[in-house]
What does this fold into?
Amino acid sequence: MEIKLKNLRRVYGDLHAVEDVSLNIPSNTVYGIIGRSGAGKSTLVRLISMLEKPDQGEVYYGDKRVDNLSKAELIQERRKIGMIFQNFNLFSSRTAAENIAYPMEICKMDKVAIKKRVEELLELVDLSGRGDAPISTLSGGQKQRIAIARALAIQPDILFCDEATSALDPQTT
It folds into this structure.
């Protein structure tokens, strides 16, 4: 799905984190945003993914404008999106498998389908047999792989990553 940004702006007090950004990200591409620390990369990702609303400008997923959606419409649109954060954002009260299952539970998927998909994803991220592991027992790299599996669980139309592989070694990446 193509993503279009038109004249995005986000200001925090005197800090102009994102200033007049316009770009098109074609469908089925990997698009990287690079820059120095504090340049506004994470803010831009948060704006594109609609975790934050821009102060000005427009965000489109395909031909659909998403920055002006109601809260209920935005929730539905976010169900088509996967997010991988640098700091994992895993639930410490859930096992590895339960963390992966969470987005599918929200979408009210069938329990049998959830179990099957969780097993597929654990295998994909090379953590087969670790589904029952409490999050506290996993290494940083294992936690990051669980976060990646969780983001892929619903087979998202769009996958946003904010330094998603920073906790992984080059071979695993």
